[in-house]
Specification:
By secondary structure, the protein is of the alpha+beta class. It has 10 helices and 4 strands. Strands 1-2-4-3 form a 4-stranded antiparallel β-sheet, with helices on both faces. Helix 2 packs antiparallel against helix 7. The model has no long low-confidence stretch (mean pLDDT about 95). Bound molecules: flavin mononucleotide.
Length: about 220
Amino acid sequence: MLSSSTAISSDALIHQLEWRYATKRFDPTRKIDPGTWDSLIESLVLTPSSYGLQPYKFIVVTDPALRAKLRTVSWGQAQIEEASQLVVFAIKKDMGKAHIAHYVDRIAQVRGVSRDSLEGFEGMMVGNLVDSLRATTIDQWSARQTYIALGNFMTSAALLGVDTCPIEGLDPAAYDQILGLEAEGYATVCVCAAGYRSADDNYAKLPKVRFPESELVQVR
Ligand SMILES: Cc1cc2nc3c(=O)[nH]c(=O)nc-3n(C[C@H](O)[C@H](O)[C@H](O)COP(=O)(O)O)c2cc1C
């Protein structure tokens, strides 16, 4: 077990969250170093999900030709090509009993417990998700889990001084076709570009537009 520790101060946290902004122009010459990138990949893997089911996959697109193609189906947004890294967040379509069984196998393996002892948990997940939700609803449920990974990734990046831009301005079906995701049973929900801001990205200088805390946070 890892021990709990306060890794950074409150001031440092808020500073990095204010430093982060949806980067429009990345410096194409600046690349994320492998050590930092490995940590950000780990932040995706460590993302919490409902029941721990992880109904998603993250596709890191490094091929420049693929990135150029994806840009044409992403409203032409420059980040798709200019950022050091591009991650596509995809849900497992119609997540069902096979995926749940795969997860339960993994719990038994990682925690060294018998498969039989997990039958009740497996039955509960199947009952609550597969038997009670329609396919469209389970895909929405999976998308919600996937956005947690997006948030985790962006915050982790900000803490490491890496810029990001979350992107929903794209044609998900075209992504699925270009990346061959449909045949694998996955569907694109959003992407995130990561790298380092270009010095001439004026968006970095704009004040953040947020409703007052009193409007967003209530204590009852
Ligand atoms: C799920 C999601 C999708 C977004 N899609 C885009 C996008 O396609 N292109 C873009 O430039 N910004 C996109 N944004 C960035 C938002 O416009 C931005 O986060 C918001 O205006 C707040 O600004 P800030 O992130 O700079 O603080 C997206 C943000 C989120 C969370």
